[in-house]
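Batch manifest line 308
LIGAND: iron/sulfur cluster
JOB: complex structure
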Amino acid sequence: MNNISNNEKAEKILRLKEEAGALVLAHYYQNLDIQHVADYCGDSFELAKRARSSDKNIIVFCGVSFMAESAKIMNPEKRVFLPRADAGCQMADMVTPDIVSKMKKEHPQAVVVCYINSSAATKALSDICVTSSNALKIVGTLKENEIIFIPDKNLGAFVAKHFPDKKFYFMEGWCPVHHDVDIEALREARRLHPEAPVVIHPECREEILKESDFIGSTSGILDYCRESDKKEFIVATERAIVERLKEECPDKKFYLMSSCLVCPNMKKTRLDDLLYTLETLDDEIYMTEEEIRAARLPLERMLNAVKD
Ligand code: 13P
Ligand code: SF4
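JOB STATUS: finished
ARTIFACT:
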């Protein structure tokens, strides 16, 4: 496969997905060559909605395992494929069913709000899922005063700030890509680019969020930068967002705030992997009916809570 050019691979992918009747979804953190051949690119929430409403029988999810798993849970009669079976999520791996069960025992009155970046087994123990783009809205709909927010304590702290009357319980979980951004990186970027607003993902730590100008999910950041009159931006989320913005807005400048903002799992999927999946229909997501049934309700509740 390596003896054909990337353009030829891309053309082959476009042809094969037509022939197979496949829907190719790509998260915005994927390499740009993957985004270019996808039917839809989006943040976690947008892609979850696309997966649920897909009428194609084959969904190829270029992202990480919890995303493909969520697609399967929401549309179980479809065949869902993850081109790199080893593309996991370090944050999702930080939470186990044991941790959730223990927290539930300690706080029996609390509702369990689960970031979609989690395994099906974790979702099965949760009441409702959220993504970074809808967490504020969804928590705002909850009548309970106590909330167990898993696994991301940074996103949780950001949400909790907006609901001072509610009591939140967190666990030790975070996205290493965003958590490792430090305040020195932010201040140095501001020193170098004093005119540029700092736009940041809520998976970053609170002390960094405090000094930023705009906090938003992946799509929120993209929209803010596209629509702003400003000409330069310091961006604190995965590197592919900066690459996409540079391509979309050639008259603006984008600076990645820290070199740690690269997700190794999101970067695993290559054109060769996608081509292989479409040619062989290998790397299918298999889940038992029971696993799907148990994890489905919190995802459905999320989608129903924020119906547009
Ligand atoms: P969003 O797509 O919800 O912004 O999430 C970011 C992320 O870390 C995905 O893995
Ligand atoms: Fe997981 Fe963070 Fe990578 Fe998203 S960016 S897949 S949360 S490790």
